[in-house]
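Retro notes
What went well: the complex prediction finally ran end to end.
Inputs used:
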Amino acid sequence: MDALVFIPVLALVLLSLAAAGKTPPRLGAAVLVWGGIIAAAVAIRQWVPDSFFYPKSEIVKRVQGQLRVLRKTADWEKHPVLILEGSSVTLFGVNGAELAGLLAERGLPATVLQFAGAGANHYERLHLLRLFWQSLKPGEREKLRRTRVVLLSEVFDAYDRNPLYLYAREAYSERALVYSTPRNAGEAAQAYRIYQRQPDFAETEPVLWPLLENSLLNTFAVGAFSDLRPPGKLRGIPGFFALTDPKAAFDFPATWTNFAGSWKEPEKFADALPLPQWSRYFETLRAECAPFVDEFGFYALPLLEPQRYAYQRAFADHLPPSVIMIGPPGEAFYSRLNQPGDWFDGTHPRERGAQVFTEWFADELAREWPRLVRPSSP
Amino acid sequence: MLFTTIAFAIFLLITLGLYWSFRSDAWRHPLIFLANLVFYGWWDWRFVALLLAVIGVSYGCALGISRAAARRSRARGWLILACGSQLALLAYFKYANFFLDSLKRIVEQTGAHAGWTTLHIILPVGISFYIFQGLSYVISVYEQRVPAERSLLKVGVYLSFFPHLVAGPIIHATYFLPQLASARRFDAAQFIEGARKFAIGFLYKAVFADNLAKFVDPVFAAPAGQSNLAVFAGCLGFYGQIYFDFAGYSLMAIGVANFFGYLLPDNFNHPYRAASMIDFWRRWHISLSTWLRDYLYIPLGGNRGPRWFQYRNLLITMLLGGLWHGASWNFIWWGAIHGVALCVNHAWRTWRPPSADPRPAGPRALAVMASWLATQAVVFLCWIPFRAASFADVLVILRKLGGLLLENPGVAVGVPWLLLTIPLIADTWIVGSRRLTDRWALRSNFALYAIIALALLTALLFMHVGKVAFIYFQF
């Protein structure tokens, strides 16, 4: 029901009734009033949570879904909380609920929260995490601070290379708007400027201008109620989504052959690691998550693209041994994923593939368990 | 550059800041002219040359007319050159494809083969508006209603003034050139009134029109697949959308002009209050109807001569008015129906003059109500060919509307009935009522400032995000 239409209609009626008073209007006074009202509006926007302005956005629904997972888990504060943050590779590749179950079967109880979105670049995920922290009740926040929290970030070359990967494609969508907060946009713009200076800079669409526009739109929650409907009950969506149908035009045999061939002559990742734009992002992530997260680690999920795999490999090799790194899996593991029905395309598994991914992930986490649950360093 | 975008907000703030920082018009005029070119070039730089050509032709021919004033035949030559060249530009960019396509269909219907293909011509935004203004200028000079302007810059500022450049209001030279001749002084009252008008226009366009478009577009995209009730809702939505879109643009244009110290004429006066077709055309797109009256209807003979002459003149004017909106048979149909409706209205007035109505107040009010309903029904039905993609779609929609009366209206899921009705009712019967707005006026400077800011913020919250061009840009 488009009941909120009465609000702009009221504004229209008031505008038609508004008239100058007995003394002539003065621009100075008008600017003062306008400035005050605009400042108040910006302050209100900062104070009111995003879930009020964008209740139907994917980002808010994902946060709601993970809040529900946390709240439904009995005594979650007594066990480690594992947070996976990633893109579609994680969304379609790891079943967080199943992963928690597999760990529990191994006697390793943990709460798994999964913050992933299809095409979600690092700054969208960062905002997801921010919203999650902000959405916690004070008591939950306190419990989380006392609980062992490990944040594992997905390693995927395209997102690590371009801090605003896929932003241009969705520049004027609600999705891009929601995470283009002035703060997030400012940070993303700085990382993007670093990326622009790299020799392999390859973005062809304008990004910084839409980013600036969206951050201004976000500041005033522009279009937040454009469907003219009162915000309903917040709904959550799960962190995992199974791909059941095959992708049209995906040539599994050719992809498999190409990838299998790369075991003999592995692709090399040419750039020096870490990529400077990624480092910039990761500093922000660390700083923002530090109050809640005890340990930062990474994971690289299976895929069938030699160049992307080479990046995962190089990334893992580059990390100091003290940092938790799950994957990438070796040649032997891929024999479990050699059926066309396992794959949606070269980077995403279908439902059965995701099952294999999740089991592998559980095994790897179990192996790393002592490091995952060790007490936090001061 | 759309008025509802951030790019425009930045452009406006910079231009406005620079404009009022200059102390004299000697600097302001070049700045405004440059701003006009940037505004127009933002859409496509290539067509700035076209705009400059129209300015150059209008300026040169007006001077030619002025210098040949004593020799009318030479002045007429300059006038023909100005009108012919500008109409040729309009014909090429706007109508060439339409005529070629129509001719091709006729040829092919005879069984012959038409060997030509449709040209790939991009329609320059706002071409009809600035060419009509160019024509208005040279004709006004020819008729000695305004002296030829010696400054090319001033003619350039007048013809390309960015607030009204791409979608009007169409301004007569007699209205605007005198404003350019006198120095602009900052007037806070005018500036704030401009802000009020801009805020109303912003609500019209960004909230009501664009949100209606989200519902209307799918209905008109595939009317055959819609229920009868959904088609009716879509037509009602467009009835509101086109008004809020165009009136909103006009109000924003007037408001922006006020920021720079200029006045533009009102372009709309709550046309859906009109209880006759004659009244409707005095309230709808006033600057176009005035232009058509002054430069087409009156030169054709206007009301002079036998009554059927007047009807003929009306029909020709409205047919060309329809064609002005776009190169399509649908617009010609729209103009033709309006022309016929105006003729019927004039004939009715001749037969039953309103002042001679002897009935008491009650029945007279009922008659006015019936007249209002009949007028708005005609306007409502005329918007169908205006919006439909093809004549076949018009027939489908009319059949569906007929089905509403004859059979089960069907189910219309997701129809935003409140959005379709409440803004129109409020705008027509509250905002449009001078009696109500005068009686309940909030006469307080503080309230005025606060309401403007709060209304704009409300508009931002409720506006449709995404690019929806103004409907009249295409004309």
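What we learned: DSSP finds 17 helices and six strands in chain A.
What to try next: split runs per interface for comparison.
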